[in-house]
Amino acid sequence: MRTSLAFILFTLLLVMGAIAHLGIGARFIAPQTVVEAFFHFEPRNFDHNVIIKLRLLRLCAAMVTGAALGVAGVLLQSVIRNPLGEPHILGLNAGAALAVVLTSALGLSLPFGRPLVAAAGAAALFLLVLLFSSSGRTGLTPMKVTLCGVAMSAFASSITAAALILDEQTLLAMRTWLAGDLSGLNGDTIGSAAGLAAVGFALALWLSPSLNMLALGDRMAQGLGVSLLKTRLFALLAIALLCGAAVSVAGPIGFIGLVVPQLIRRLVSVDLRVMVPLSALCGALVLLLADIAARTLFTPYELATGVMTALVGAPVFILMASRMFK
Amino acid sequence: MAYNTKKSGLVLENLSAGYQKKIIVDDISLAIPRQKMTVLVGANGCGKSTLLSTLARLLQPLGGSAVLDGKAIHEQPTKAVARQLGILPQSPLLPEGLTVFELVSRGRFPWQNFMRQWSDEDEQAVEEALRLTGTAEFAHLPVESLSGGQRQRCWIAMALAQQTPYILLDEPTTYLDLRYQVEILELLHALTRRHGRTVVVVLHDLNFAVNYGDSLVFLRQGKVEGVLHEGDACTPELIKSVFDVDVHMSVNPLTGKPFFMPFRQAADRS
Known about the structure:
The complex is a heterodimer. Chain A is an all-alpha fold. Chain A has 13 helices and no strands. The radius of gyration of chain A is 20 Å and the shape is globular. The model of chain A has no long low-confidence stretch (mean pLDDT 88). In chain B, a hairpin with a 2-residue loop joins strand 9 and strand 10. The relative contact order of chain B is 0.16. In chain B, helix 4 packs antiparallel against helix 5. By secondary structure, chain B is α/β, with parallel strands linked by helices. Chain B is built from nine helices and twelve strands. Chains A and B meet through helix 8 and helix 9 of A and helix 2 and strand 6 of B.
């Protein structure tokens, strides 16, 4: 009941947010014209062309990125059993960004391009975080994973910065992207990123019943017939694909993966079969709103979208962390 | 002891288990009587938890095997085993905000797959589990809002919803007051008698073990120190060898079963 209500509500809000997002820009376009552009497209109408040929790309980018980050957050939090798990805090975004910048600086071009490179970078850095934080006698504790993630994230970012200082051309190409920005996109990147995100999302849906059992503890989950290793490995793969997709489109955007799952958990359900699809919807919505805010709050200037999400997300993180580690 | 692997049931055959070559469960052979309550008793560190972890497939056996209805459990798909053998570990994690109904529903996992998520059978199994454990009245409350005894009944309900012929419980009465301990043990006993389940339970209270167990298995340093079946008498000597504690034994005139009270070392010397 509450679940179906939440699905309907978030879908409605997403549609409304999308219409607003398409209408806002250097030239304001009224909602009815936006809707018309989809259902009665007039090739000679200037507004219709702006919407379909220019603004739609940015909207798709925002929705793919937001949905991917929301779902990646849910998965990450279930795998490490820690509500502070977030792709940005745990260094996955920084790892993805580092991989993209390094391949770009070295002039390498790879099949599927940016999204797959980013996914590999995210996976590599997160494996390092897991490796470091599980060393020592106490094993993997929430505190250690969080600290290690923050440290590795800073480490990766500093290497990224160093690479950019040495290579001015890459710096020019990457500067706004690194702040988490949705401008200057190309359709190919978004297409392949959406493909990767779709695979990650399908994996997440498929894993969600097993991840529900994982929440009851390893022994309980195994006793209920969950294969722990398989579940964790596939979850990590899904997380890497989702982060890679998000970072390759929009650069490292933080805190969506923290705020969105927390919201769903509080308001709707802790059942991951519900949380995964709802976090996709809600993540898309939140990033859309953040993007609208980033573009309209300080007109004529535009903030990077990642700055906007950090302004809201960082205080939430501090609040949650202080409650958790008190 | 005599056992036959062709016979259906849960049988341990020369089972050894442990961590990183350190053997904790050492060559145990044991047949668990069906539709009865078997109580595992032993001092801390005797290998009970390792044994349960092995049966839960968290550990691979270092030697021998655990056989369920003629098939080694470590050679079957883990989900297939989960339809035969339910396990309630000592301190499972409780996700915040989960309602009793949702928790008990999770016991249906082994019966579901991606295409078949929730069926009438699932619904019936959960409702029966709620009814048997007396948790139906708070089915829609969050589990964390309940008392310790009620919470434990919810976990048992979850194990029941799994509808396995065999149920293993690791110290289900720990941290509960006397009334809840009795309630849980009565429930487990009723499961064996009225619902044909085979129950294996780890207990620390010797008197409860003697009173409720149809069979008692005493473990010491990873080996079986003694097995008592119905009618076999438990002796202070056996208790001494298992726990290294001197106990006084009396017989309960109502049941004819023994009960034990440890000697107070200082008081008894004077």
